[in-house]
Every structure is written in C-alpha cells, then in structure tokens.
Predict the 3D structure of the following.
Amino acid sequence: MHTVWKGAISFGLVHVPVKMFSATEDKDISMRMIHTACNTPLNFVRKCQHCEREVEWGEISRGYEYEPGAFVLFEKDELEKLTGEVTKEIKILDFVDLSEIDPVYFQKTYYLAPNETGAGAYSLLLEAMKQTGKIGIAKVSIRSKSSLAAIRVIDRCIAMETIFYPDEIRSVDQVPNLPEQSNVNDKELDMAKMLISQLSTPFEPEKYKDDYRAAVLQAIEQKVSGQQISVAPEPHRANVIDLMSALQASLEAVKPVSSEPTPLPADRAKPDKPKSRAKSTKGKAKDKETVPS
C-alpha cells in the first residue's frame, strides 16, 4: 500500500512514530466525457475568463471571496505555515467509549503502521486500548486540513477515523417534513418489532455485494465484445393496500420453515383403541342365554 502520511501518535508524553495508509478504496467505475460527434475524450482546462487563456498551475493561488467579486489571496506556503508542527502529529486529547460517537461524525478510515523505530510503543498503545476498551479522540492535519480523529483498534492494527467537527454536522431541525411526535398504531408497532427481530442477524459484511457495479462491468464486457446488452426485467411487486398488510406479508416472507411435524389437536393426539371383538361377542352370547322364551 502507498504511504499517504508520516508522523507520530502522541498521548501524554508518549510518542508513537507511524505511517498512514488508506484503509478503503473507491471502486466506482470511472467513465470519461466523450464528444459524441467524433468519439474524442474531453479535457477540462483551467481558463481565466478575463485573460481568455489557459492558466498553468504555477500561476494559481488560493482566494477567499469575502464579498461578491472581492477576494483575499493566500499562497501555498502561507497556508502551510498556519498548520504549524501539528501536521506531523496525531495528538490524542481524550479517551472515550466508541459507543458514545454517533456514526454521522465518521469520514474516512486510515490504517496506522509502526515506523521502523516505533514497534514497541505501537504495541503498547494497541494493547492498552484493547484491554481498556477505549478509543482516543485526537487532532490531526492532513494536506493542510485540520480534522478531529478517532484512534481505535481494528484486529491487530491501530486505525484512525477522521471525524467531523460538531459545527460541521447539520441539525436535524433543517430537515423538512419531520413529524413533531411519533403517532403509531400499537398493533403495527408490535408487528414492526417482530419483523426487525426476524431480520436481525450478526453483521457479515462479505455477504453484501455492489450489484450496480457488477451490472455495469457486465455491460462493458458485452459492449466490448459486440454483444447486445440484455437487462433482466424487474421483479413484479404487488401493490400493498395498507401498512398492516405490508407488515403481515413481510413477516410471512421471513418466517423460518419448521422441520418438525405440525402437532395434532388435543382431541386427535391419541386415537381411540379398538374394542375387543371377542369380548363384545361373548357379551352378546350371554345376553342371548338369559332372555326368557
């Protein structure tokens, strides 16, 4: 894997030299913009509207528009000076429980490996976090951007998850049409909870597949080989009349099939024993003898 950053984790006066690697990769299928008339890929150029020409990277600076058409300019080295020494340090500020952090805060995951001289301190921090069950909340700067980060253990590796600052999280009050309070039918609620229980299972990420990417790759192969693309029809979905019907149908669909035979009703569980014919005949013969002539 490609090293994206070098520095050190610090907690208290302890420094752990580390290298950083991206823990995830984007597998989206990249497609170019093509000029339909001649099948030529399009290039996007950095063009100055005033000078009406393409601009080289060496002629470009950063600017903040503080009012329409008015900018304050920054050169690259100015922005780098503002970050200071923190660019090479992941400074742990606190240790907390992972369950206290809402997933909305998480951005991107990185793996941290010990540097050549940091294996001992790395193992110490990893084992200490494992045994205490805590994760570190740290500050870090990557590519001139300051971020909060969660330092935690994944298997036998220390990982860093960049997280948003609180003021970067939009309030749910901005979301339109949210109900003021939940008014639900008790029976529907019970059925919904039953459905959730039936669908609950341990998380197994390997069973989830990107069906769209697989379909696009298949379509690309078909086009390259000159085949006509065939798309399977969407499964027919019956219209559900109401919420209760949808819940009932969902529960029926996920109900486990029992391998045991269905028990008979109580009155049919034990069949009646047949009466002895010999006893019955003997009784009749005795009755016959006592009948007066």
Q: What stands out?
A: Residues 264-293 have pLDDT under 50 and may be disordered. The first strand starts at residue 3 and ends at 11.
